[in-house]
Amino acid sequence: MTEHNEAVIKTDALIIGAGPVGLFAVFELGLLDIKAHLIDILPKIGGQCAELYPEKPIYDIPGFPVVTGQQLVDNLLQQIEPFHPEFHLGEMVVSVARHESEQGVLFHIETDAGTRFEAKTVLVAAGGGSFQPKKPPIPDIDSYENTSVFYAVRQMESLRDHHVLIVGGGDSALDWALNLQSVAARVTLMHRRDEFRAAPHSVAKMRELVAEGKMDLLFGQVTGLEGANGQLTAAKCKGMDQAAFRVPCDRMLPFFGLTMKLGPIAEWGLNLHENLIPVDTEKFETSTPGIFAIGDINTYPGKLKLILSGFHEAALAAQKAHRYIYPDKRLLFQYTTSSTSLQKKLGVNG
Amino acid sequence: MTDVTFIDHTGEARTVSGTAGMTLMEVAIKHQVPGIDAECGGACSCATCHVYVEPEWMEAVGQPASMEEDMLDFAFDVRPNSRLSCQIKISDALNDLRVHTPARQS
Ligand SMILES: Cc1cc2nc3c(=O)[nH]c(=O)nc-3n(C[C@H](O)[C@H](O)[C@H](O)COP(=O)(O)OP(=O)(O)OC[C@H]3O[C@@H](n4cnc5c(N)ncnc54)[C@H](O)[C@@H]3O)c2cc1C
Ligand code: FES
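Above: the input entities. Below: the structure tokens describing the complete assembly.
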């Protein structure tokens, strides 16, 4: 990244991933006076629980006979409120580098949006990896990516006066079709059927624009791309009746939901085993001292990919993190029930 | 036990068995059949368990419910015989069912 748009953000701990385990780590770190920032590529908090099963019940969270994915996330947010965690959403961590300096070891972390952090310790709570857009298996699509084919819109202006083909029927597809309709030379929305799972008011608005002749709506699926040197000229399509047709366009935005991909984690110099980060079971530290891995992303003998295991891992990792951040302070074992000092931190005592 | 056959995009067939009540996706995962990702574990929220049901089995398998039909929007190359395997419960009536898996789920 060459863009350095902001000053470096300094923090005790940087947590990569705002899933349930990253969230609970804020709590365990907070009790030990360790302040945390969290980064997640998703625009929302809660990892798999919020993205994949917000309304499904979970039955094995200790003390909660039943709780839905979203309720668990909401409860965790309430629980960590006293520690004022700072969230950086919609950003993917691309690099993590360890630096030794006179003040000790510091980690330099950077996101794809150019935000930079300096942290004393890093907790990788990256679950199954970054949630990233699904890429349709259209032949040759790779050679058009980032020149003519985009899976997200960072700046609407970049699409001004282009002929944009938007593929999909969900909220992302509809929202961008509506937003870009006044900016692009022409917007064509293509979907496999005449029914849309997007919010009803967006669908109504879209149909209105189509009726007014301000955008096009086609039914079918893209099967191939035409163009050269990354410059798209048309999409080859087939209708639901299998008839072939083509749509001239110079930009295509496919919206097929998200999938979990390991992403840049492989480039941070950590040992990996089958896309997981091996850790010890005392501190849950990686092959790089000062970097911990907790939750679904780690592996060790007997590992269970359960939320409750991740919570335990967060508690133990926090203990070791404390030694890096406050090397001179002895850590006392205390209960939240009876310790006045812990209760002060939680804001429940005087 | 109910036998089901998964045919991958190269044409290789794998016949595995499950018990009535399991979903087709669960049978695939249990036997580590390649071509079924099932990222959301059967919550009908990922569309990475997409299969094509062989035409002669379509009637027995039935049509997707509206939630599944919505989720199929996130699958690739959806055809009239597309289903999400986590939404198909196997039973004696589906013994010897044959489905094809796509080249890529995500
Ligand atoms: C349908 C379903 C049902 C489940 N039911 C249960 C259950 O009943 N009980 C149970 O205990 N568990 C259950 N699980 C598993 C549970 O959801 C996971 O164990 C849990 O979500 C793991 O939490 P995590 O915080 O480690 O990771 P995740 O929830 O995966 O969150 C990780 C986050 O990190 C982000 N991320 C990764 N890499 C980067 C990067 N480089 N930059 C920025 N962000 C990044 C991701 O976008 C993601 O949001 C279920 C899972 C599914 C799919
Ligand atoms: S396993 Fe996710 S939709 Fe079937």
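Note for the figure: DSSP finds seven helices and 20 strands in chain A.
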